[in-house]
Amino acid sequence: MPVITPAPYWRAPTQPVAVPTAAAAAAPSASPLTLQLPPRDYESAGGERCADGAHVVLIPVIPMGSIIMRGLMPLSVLNSTRPALHGARVSYLGWTGPRNLTLAQRLDRHFAQFGAPSACVLLKYADDDALSACRRRGALVLLDCIDNFRCFGVSRAAHEYPKYDALLVQTAAHQRWLAGKGVRSAVLPHPHGDHRRVRHAHPLRARLRGVGLVYGDPKNLPLRHELVAICRACAAVNATFYLVYSPSSSTLKAPQPYHCEGHGGVPPAPPPPPPWPSGGAGGGHDGWCRRQRRAPPPVPSCDASASSSAEERAAYLGSLFAANLSDVSGQHRFYENDEKKGIDRLRAHVDVGLLWPPLGRKDPKLAIENRPPTRMHWWWAQSIPVVAFPMHSYVEAAARIGYPPGLVNLSTADQIAPALCSISSRAARGCLQRAVMRGADLASPLHAALELLTAVCAVADAVGRPLARPAAGEDQWMTRALIKG
Q1: Which residue in 333, 382, 373 sits closest to 353, CA to CA?
Q2: Entry pTM
Q3: HSE of 65 in the Cβ direction (CA atoms, 13 Å)?
């Protein structure tokens, strides 16, 4: 049964929201419109062969930043791992050529050069001209919503989206909503951008001393009074709250401590957090934690063999295509040090990542509740555990790796301090670190790119139309020219 938590801040207090348990979040839906992609260990299975011989075309309708990670990055990964892990051809509609061409004309030129499509994946935005161009050639057509709030429009769900064979969405909650409107979809969570196949855990400090919140745009920050409440919750357990700025056009900035006081117009300090709601004797690293005398939620079992076997698989894959797999899309700068050592500074100050709703956004409420788990996956790629507000994508991502559901069910700021106490020990954070490192593999660019092929095949099966295997055109390799247009 779902756990009923206090309402999100953007709802009225009389409108509670149901947050699924880990089991419920991972449970398949009975609707034929909710396509279930089976959990796959692509590395051990030798990749994904269902689309071998097919031509998948990625189509950006509008040149925006989000198309890099859902278009250019999969292109780079898939064309660098063929034929080692799959036999599909993948191409991307670039912005090269005459500037006065319509989208339909650009697609005609693209298909003439690279071959007829087996499946078209429109990135973020629907477009009737692209839909028609792909349909005329007998291709499946999918719309990858990414974070487009329009995918929650009732009118579009009734009149526009049924034209597509399926939508790709970020959460099972969104998928169920679409099924209720008669729209077929598959869940394909947004990956992080770290291409490394061997991950190394950074050393853990003896006690939890820093909590970080990463953002790329101020509109994705919590509101100011929430930042103050979060800061005070961290201070209650003698931890510093840091804001970590990660601009899309530059490298990661050094964590900046957030000062709880000195901000005008904020409410008075909240009362002390209540005890953690379970019995037993607890313990913590500071006075506040010790005074709670309550047991923390469980942490996942430590399985060292899972981590080592993952490294062995990654090393094997690296021997197959390490020379080809590259970061032409430019994502490594968010995961590796530059001359300012931003990643080293992050790990020197931050022990736990915090994920909280971006209440400054103007998007519809349903779209905010179902935003992608990109930031959670980013923390995982840094081998840093997290605590989180129960956004649907965070609850579902946690369920996929067996992460403690209590740590992603913090619906108010006063629940942060007890959660931090529960993972204050190095042993607890060590268990969580191993879990998130496994999660980082499941949210990697390689896994997400192969899962895209799985989704295309699942849609073909659902609509009863086998993927065409057209005559091959030119191979398209990822270059900086595709980004610059």
Answers
A1: 382
A2: 0.83
A3: 9
Work out the mean pLDDT of the chain and round it to a whole number. 81
| CA pair distance 292, 282, nearest whole angstrom | 7
> 227 phi and psi, to 5 degrees?
-60, -40
Sign of CA dihedral 170, 176, 177, 183: positive
Q: Could you tell me how many residues make up the chain?
A: 485
Contact, 149 vs 155, CB < 8 A?
no
pLDDT tens-digit series, residues 195-216: 776 777 888 999 999 999 999 8
Closest CA to 109 of 100, 101, 99: 101
pLDDT band per the 50, 70, 90 thresholds, residue 40: confident
Q: Is 50 helix (H, G, I), strand (E, B) or coil?
A: coil
What's the token pair of residue 363?
A: 């998007």
Angle at 339 between CA 335 and CA 342, to 5 degrees: 45
Q: Which residue has the tokens 């839906």?
A: 29
Task: Tell me the torsion sign for CA atoms 307, 371, 453, 70.
Answer: negative
Q: What six digits make up the tokens of 450? A: 């192969």
Q: Name which of 27-41, 191-205, 330-344, 391-405 the model is least confident about.
A: 330-344
One DSSP character per residue, 412-458 reads: SGGGHHHHHHHT-BHHHHHHHHHHHHHHHHHTSHHHHHHHHHHHHHH
CA distance 41 to 279: 38
The span from the CA of 34 to the CA of 135, in Å, is 23
- Residue 319 DSSP label: H
pLDDT at 202 (0 to 100): 80
Q: Find the helix packing angle between 426-442 and 304-321, rounded to 10°.
A: 30
Mean pLDDT of the region 401-430: 94
How far is 91 from 314, CA to CA, in rounded Å?
Answer: 26
Which sign does the torsion angle of CA 68, 71, 74, 79 carry? negative
Per-residue DSSP letter, 244: E
Cβ atoms of 473 and 114 closer than 8 Å: yes
